[in-house]
Structures are given as C-alpha cells and as structure tokens.
Design a protein that fits this description.
The complex is a heterodimer.
Chain A (H helix, E strand, L loop, with lengths): L2 E5 L1 H12 L3 E4 L6 H12 L6 E4 L3 H13 L4 E5 L1 H6 L1 H9 L5 E6 L13 H5 L6 E4 L3 H16 L7 E6 L8 E5 L2 H8 L26 H30 L6 E4 L6 E4 L3 H15 L4 E6 L1 E3 L3 H8 L4 E6 L12 H12 L6 E6 L8 H17 L6 E4 L4
Parallel strand pairs in A: 2-3, 2-4, 4-5, 5-7, 6-7, 10-11, 10-13, 13-14, 14-15
Antiparallel strand pairs in A: 1-8, 6-12, 9-11
Helix pairs in contact in A: 1-2, 1-7, 3-5, 7-9, 10-13, 11-12
Chain B lengths: L30 E5 L9 H5 L5 E4 L2 E5 L9 H5 L5 E5 L10 E2 L9
Antiparallel strand pairs in B: 1-4, 2-3, 3-5
Classes of the chains: A alpha/beta, B mainly beta.
Chain lengths: 395, 110
C-alpha cells in the first residue's frame, strides 16, 4: 500500500532514508539541506531506524566519517548544500576514488560570496568532475524516488560509485507537495541488503583501503573509474526499469516533453523544467512548435542520447543555473557540454545559452516564453546573435 | 611487468595482508647504515626501534640490514648505545640496492 503525504523535498528524502534504514548517517547542518538530517535524526531518536547517526563538526568531517564507514562495509548516507559541498571537496574525490557507494542528497544552493542561501546549481556543477554520479530531480516525488534508486545504482558491482541526488533549494526542498510514499516493506525489498565485497571489518579477509598510489598505479585506478562511469548509464536505466515495474513511475536519462514534432526546444533541469512545461503548453496552444528536454542524469553525461533527441530541431536553447566563469562565452556548464556533444556527433543545430536564476532569482513562465521566442527567431534566421544571455538580470 | 587496469583491484585496494614486503622502499634511501660488527653488543635496540623491520637477526645476533626496505632514517644509529652504527651517504655505494649481510657490503664501500 502506498500512502500520499503532504511533504516538502526534505521531508520526502528523510522518509526515503527512514525506509532505506542506512547503517550510518554522518552529516552537518546547512541551509536548505538541514531539514533532511534534522528530520532523520528524529527518526533515529524515536528508534524508527537502526542507523548510527554521527554528529560532526564540519562537512569535511561528515563525508570523511561516511568514507570510513563505507570502507567498513556500511550502507552510508549524508546530505549537504552549497558551502557544505564545497567544504567536502577533498573527500568527494576520496569517496569516488575509493569506490565507496555513498548516497548524498545535495540541495542545490548558490555559493558565497555574497552570501546567499537560495537556489542555483553552482555548488554541484563545480563538483562535476569529482567522480560522482549526478541525478537531478524536478520535485519532491522525484527526489524520494531517486534516493531509493540511487542506493541500487551506487552499490551495483559494475558501478561502485557515490551518487549525488540533486534538487532545488527552497523551491523543491521547502515547498510542500503531494508525495506518494511506498510501503516500507516494498522499499526495503527494492533496495535489498548491502553486501560489500571488501570490508575493513571482515577480519577473515583483511584489506587496505586508500594506500599510497604513485606513478606506477594511480593512472590505472583512474582508468577503472572511467569504466565504472561507462557501466553506470546502463545500470541507471536497468534500475529505473525495475523501479517502474515495482512502483509504476518511469525514469530515464532525461525526459522529453512535446519534443518529437518540435522545431525549437529548451534544455533545462530540476524545478524550472516544470515551469518550462507550462510555457511549452501555452506556446503550443498558440501554434508554436516548441518542446522541452529535461536532463536527469548529468554524470555520466548521456551525450549521444541527448544529441539523438535534439538533432531534428532548428534551434536549441540551454538554460543554465550556473556560470562557468571564463569559459567559452562565460557560458554555463550544461551548455558547454551539450554544445560540444552536438558538434562532435554532427548535429548542426544552432544553439544558445540562457543563464538564469542565480542566487534564487525567480524564473517565471513569461521569461521562458521569451527564451522560446529567441529560439524561434534563431530557427528562422539561422543566426545566433547572442551566444549567452542572462535571463532576469537587471541591466 | 605491472598489471593493467583490468587486472587490478579497484580503488587501489590491497586485498592481501603482509605484501608491503614486496615494496622495495630502500629505493628511497639517501643515507645507508653501516655497522662496526666488532663493537656491536647485540643489545637489539636497533631491532626494537627500526620502523621498517630492516634489522636482520640470526641466532639472536644482529647480522646486518635489509637494504631493500631500509629507508635510511638513522634511528638505529641514534639509539645504538655503543654508537657502532654510522650513516653514510648512499652515493658512496655506487647506487647498488642489493640486500646484503655484513661484511661484504654491496657497492664496494670501505
């Protein structure tokens, strides 16, 4: 039996964590993630989970504790945001390189300075090369569903990589929605028991994690991480299939909305995809052939699949909630990677980047309609007058 | 030939205990311990304090250094109560890293 509850994104994730019942959670509070581990700590205090909850003095320590616990063979989860993720920086690489299947919810929030607690994607985008799988969620339901799937993805023997589950600070983390919570037993059965192949606590088979790895072996271990990322895409899809069979909701590498017969499309992830869907419907009603592609899996980046979905278009607009300062055109990371993929895989579609929503600046349907109008103009003329524009910034 | 990425344990994990003996840390050494055996009292201070288990012992007597693993830290020379161990610049030995028992040190040192 499923139950429908009024939950915000943090509450939905805390529910998933309660049902997964991880062996260890180590976390440090930071807005807007705090409510996740605060709610979860109540579950610990109330005896609803068996989890060892480790309170620490920083995010660097939080993820370090997670690394130690995961190496000891525990199923481990944590959560953070913004500066917290930045403070975990060194250990992000340690977790991925030691092949520890840690699950972390990162509630996307802008980085300082100036200090800002609201949503943009600069925190996780900055960590995109650390070796973690990145899964973006549009709403609280997707966050709940994705945390459950993340366990299976991370722990798959062909993957063994940490997973970041990402959704928008305050917009998704603190807005209450109708969320379907599955039966505890179903979730327990779906995630199964974690049986690590190598554990520091397996005294009959002692192993060393994280030894010195110099010029003679380090490169080989990085190559292995590449292979794990290559396997991850299939595993993500397999787990999504099994999730759909068990729970009924379908997930893929990305979501397409009214894209098949579209002439222009916007590519945008997370909560803004919902706003974009409304803009698509409005413009469609006026006869404009517009569509949407919502990336879900950002790492590993599904380049060929996205190109296949977009190559029939006359113009593609990427909406980035982050800036890669000093990059080509000072564009956003999603645009840079997708533009490269479109070129490499011979999709001759004009593209432009629309940076928006930094520091939680609102993005409203009329602005996305404006993006579509720019794209329709690019489609008509074949000319991109502005490679990168900033939607909603005051001139 | 060292193994390729397909044949190595993932993440640099070491799956067998005790295999640090296979790592010849003596290759790092800048200073080599040299013992005057005639003055050695076999007190075993060097054996106790050596951080790399590089003091070779036979029949309860100190017989030399495991130069494949000795990093040349000089702790043995420092703790020796009769000061019969001296640290010599590794360059004096012509670059040889062989494991040797005394006397007959590798590299033709005096």
């Amino acid at each position: 039996m499923s139950e429908f509850k009024a939950l915000d994104g943090t509450g939905a994730v805390a529910e998933a964590m309660r049902q997964i019942n991880p062996d260890v959670v180590a976390a440090y509070p930071i807005t807007p993630q705090t409510a996740i581990v605060q709610t979860f700590s109540e579950f610990v205090a109330d005896g609803l989970v068996d989890t060892e909850f480790i309170t620490v003095e920083s995010e660097h320590s939080a993820l370090s504790a997670c690394v130690g616990a995961a190496a000891a063979g525990a199923r481990v989860m944590t959560a953070t945001s913004s500066a917290g993720l930045a403070f975990m920086w060194e250990i992000l690489y340690v977790a991925a390189s030691n092949r520890l299947p840690i699950i972390m919810t990162n509630v996307n929030r802008a980085l300082s300075a100036p200090i800002n607690i609201h949503c943009d994607h600069s925190d996780s985008m900055g960590a995109r090369d650390a070796g973690w799988i990145h899964l973006f969620c549009e709403n609280a339901q997707e966050a709940y569903d994705t945390v459950i799937q993340a366990v299976r993805i991370a722990e798959h023997p062909d993957v063994l990589l940490p997973v970041m589950v990402l959704f928008d600070g305050f917009i998704t983390s603190h807005a209450e929605e109708r969320v379907e919570i599955f039966d505890d037993a179903w979730v327990k059965a779906f995630v199964g028991e974690y049986k690590p192949k190598h554990s520091l606590l397996d005294l009959d088979h002692p192993v060393t994690y994280g030894p010195l790895d110099f010029t003679d072996y380090y490169f080989e271990h990085k190559r292995q991480q590449v292979e794990a990322m290559r396997h991850a895409q299939k595993v993500i899809l397999d787990v999504a299939d099994e999730f759909a069979k068990t729970f009924g909701r379908k997930y893929g590498l990305f979501e397409m909305y009214r894209l098949d017969d579209a002439e222009v499309a916007v590519v945008v992830s997370s909560s803004t995809a919902g706003t974009a869907r409304a803009a698509v419907d409005k413009l469609r009603a006026q006869g404009a052939k517009v569509g949407l592609l919502k990336p879900r899996v950002f790492r590993p980046f599904p380049a060929q699949e996205m190109v296949a979905a977009l190559q029939h278009l006359k113009a593609v607009g990427v909406m980035d909630r982050a800036i890669s300062f000093g990059s080509m055109g000072n564009a956003g990371p999603l645009f840079l990677e997708l533009a490269a993929a479109m070129k490499i895989y011979d999709a001759g579609v004009p593209m432009a980047d629309f940076v928006f929503g930094l520091g939680g600046r609102d993005i409203v349907p009329s602005q996305i309609e404006g993006v579509f109008r720019s794209l329709l103009q690019i489609a008509e003329t074949g000319k991109v007058s502005e490679l990168v524009s900033y939607v909603g910034v005051r001139e | 030939m060292a193994k390729g990425w397909k044949d190595l344990p993932i993440g640099g994990m070491i799956l067998e205990a005790g295999n640090s003996a296979q790592y010849n840390t003596g290759a790092w050494r800048a200073f080599r311990p040299v013992r005057d055996a005639s003055r050695c009292t076999n007190c075993m201070f060097c054996w106790v304090f050596c951080p790399d288990s590089s003091i070779r012992v036979k029949d309860e007597k100190m017989v030399g250094f495991d130069l494949l693993h000795c990093k040349g830290c000089g702790i043995c020379a420092n703790v020796c109560p009769v000061k019969c161990i001296e640290m010599h610049d590794e360059a004096e030995f012509g670059g040889s890293r062989e494991m040797v028992d005394e006397p007959g040190r590798a590299g033709g040192a005096k």
